[in-house]
Amino acid sequence: MGRPGVAGQGRDRFGLTGTSQSFDPRVVAIRPDLADIAVAGTHFAPHYASPMMMSGMLPAAIMRGLPSLEAEQTSELLFGEGFALLDLTGGWAWGYSLADHYVGYLSAEALGAPIAPTHRVDMIEAMLHSAPDAASGGPAVLPRGALVMGEAEGEWLRTAHGYLPLAALVEVGSEHEDPVAVAETMIGTPYLWVGRTAKGIDCSGLVQLAWAAAGVQLPRDSDLQLAALGPDKDVAPADLERGDLVFFPGHVGIMADKQNIVHASRQWMEVRVEPLAEVAKRSAAKGNEVPVSGYKRLR
Q1: CATH code of domain 179-296
Q2: CATH hierarchy code of domain 119-171
Q3: Residue 295 pLDDT greater than 80, yes or no
């Protein structure tokens, strides 16, 4: 085991009554050798660690299932998003994103000191400038949803890393955008499994990104999103409206209007709008017993 986030006194002495509960490793931080201290009362592990809070330092850092560049990509951590660090070994950080509690490994270089975000990037991408001047170059381009901390200076936000135009930002806590409009700005974005930015995005990442702009944080994967919304709010297809979430087995999209869905499609390898009936037909052709597994209204 490497260096835990915080090695507090007595961190590995806890009582566990009854049997250890089953868990979803995507969102519960447990390894054979180590677990998040938050689960100490319900899940057994040889050692527990209290997380050390960090923040993402890259525009979008790849999260992986194992500490290897060859390991499967599982998600992305955006600039400024919080990360609960539980272990640091061989240049790999293990823990979970504070945005959706998704567990994974990151390059240690992707993390820095935690910030108290004041603003969120509210455009598809925003240039981080070296000076409060639109003609100045910049060290990075931040994706929609990135979190930053700074102070306003005229039409700019001054941060520790450079300047961002206030026109590209929204204050944290004041998000109120139409999630469908946000999703529509992503039309044409390449499909990327586990992607969360305009460089590439998947179906659940698109839904998560769109609703975050409205101030609603959803889980990372489509089945987790469906479970979080609950099983008792099904809407008949004829009653669908703009903004309704539509779930298929392993897929999710947002209704653009009463007939069309905007989604990140593996069929077309991009974000596009198409008739819901066509998406349902393709799902049925794959042998899904129920072409559409659920309609969920999120208001």
Answers
A1: 3.90.1720.10
A2: 2.30.30
A3: no
